[in-house]
Amino acid sequence: MLFKEVIGQSIVKNRLIRQYREGRGPHALLLSGPEGCGKLAMAWSLADYLLCRQPGDEDACGVCPACRRVKKLGHPDLHFSFPVIRKSESTTCNDYLEEWSRMLQQGAYFGLSDWIDQISSEAKSPIIPDAEGDNILNQMMVTSYEGGYKVLVMWLPERMTSSAANNLLKFLEEPTPKTVAILVSDHPDQILPTILSRTQQVEMFRLSDAEVAEALESRNGLDASTARQVARIAGGSYLAALRYIQIDNATDEFFEQFVALMRMAYARDVMGLQRWTDKISAWNRERQKMFLGYAQNMIRENFVYNFRRPELNYMNDREAAFALKFAKFINERNVVGFMEELGHVQKDIEQNVNARTVFFDAALRITILLRK
Ligand SMILES: [Zn+2]
Fold it and tell me: How close is the Cα of 21 to the center of ligand 1, in Å?
């Protein structure tokens, strides 16, 4: 993968390129930042850049034999480690290379839940197992096949077993020249401090709505206005945007559920809200998170609608027709409360709190907020 295929993030790209070109790139790097901002894409591109035989000032060449092998995940000096389902004591990431390759070839924008779907039909929690720790040492402690760098890309190091972590630590403590470990983490706070202290942390931030919209147009063929609308719901995550467009008629369904919630909350129809909660709770977590993103966007749009400045609004015809009557209920007394309420729900859902309780409590608070 090339840097130019990574969406946005030009500050991080330039910084990494400069550091390694000037020979002062860290031996161990930790890329952190919100899901969907492109950390794994960045790691893969950097690996390509380091292994490319004729790297330019801004990117790997993309055509040399090394670049071609990196693209196909067949470069002997590039090793990927990632969470897997342990089948036996000897399970390593090598046992999952086919699935991993399939996943990466679809673009390096995916999350743990997508990866679990790819490798298991059951709800299991993948780890970087003990044997993978030995595997890393075996792969990284030998001299490079091609005489250049040896690169380890580890996705989600927070999921390492302690034995695997010890092996990684050995590697980090005794760096051999021209080896680079790139760790990609959603939760750096869950990584062992001894490992953290040996890495240089590079924080990546959410993408801008414009960057996500541009990517949706150029990569996914969305028209400009749909792309802009999806980008606003995705909250700076290209991954969230991808998930959103993969659901058939997501906007229609989310719109209907949003309207149902507001109507029943206004009517204080507690039985109805209970049924609504049952329905939303049956969705998977990703869908719930997307709906919450959609609902926050609708609150914002309806608040803005009151200013009568159509150029500031991004709604489709159905949403705009609803706003005609609904917008007056979203005002300066309750808009912050709404956003906070929906934000709390989102956080709870991410932390696996019982969805039924969280959504029903929120629905009840919305009945109060609507009267403010
Ligand atoms: Zn190249």
Answer: 15
Give the Å distance between the CA of 149 and the centre of ligand 1: 13
Question: Bridge partners of 81?
Answer: 154
Q: Mind listing the pLDDT tens digit for each residue in 42-95? A: 999 999 999 999 999 999 999 999 999 999 999 999 999 999 999 999 999 999
Number of independent structural domains in the chain: 3
> 293 C-alpha vs ligand 1 centroid, how far in Å?
40
3-state secondary structure of 203: strand
Bridge partners, 180 (sequence order): 151
Residue closest to 82 by CA, chosen among 121, 43, 48: 43
CATH of the domain at 76: 3.40.50.300
Structure tokens at 155: 């996705």
62 C-alpha to ligand 1 centroid (Å): 5
Q: What is the pLDDT of residues 187-203, one digit of tens each?
A: 999 999 999 999 999 99
In the reported structure, the alpha carbon of residue 60 is separated from the centroid of ligand 1 by a whole-number distance in angstroms of: 5
201-224 confidence digits (pLDDT tens): 999 999 999 999 999 999 999 999
Q: Ligand 1 centroid to 111 CA: how many Å? A: 28
Distance 113 CA to ligand 1 centre (A): 32
Same domain as 150, residue 221:
no
| Residue 286: predicted pLDDT | 83
Q: DSSP letter for 85, please.
A: -
Q: Which domain holds residue 312?
A: 248-369
Amino acid symbol at 328: K
8 CA from centroid of ligand 1 (Å): 21
Distances (CA, A) of 103 to 40, 73, 79, 153, 187: 12, 11, 16, 15, 21
Structure tokens at 218: 């150029």
How many angstroms does the Cα of residue 150 sit away from the middle of ligand 1? 15
Look up residue 118 and give its two tokens. 């790819």
**Ligand 1 centre and the CA of 33: distance in Å?**
28
How many angstroms separate the alpha carbon of residue 66 from the centre of ligand 1?
6
pLDDT number for residue 175? 80
Same domain membership, residue 312 and residue 188:
no
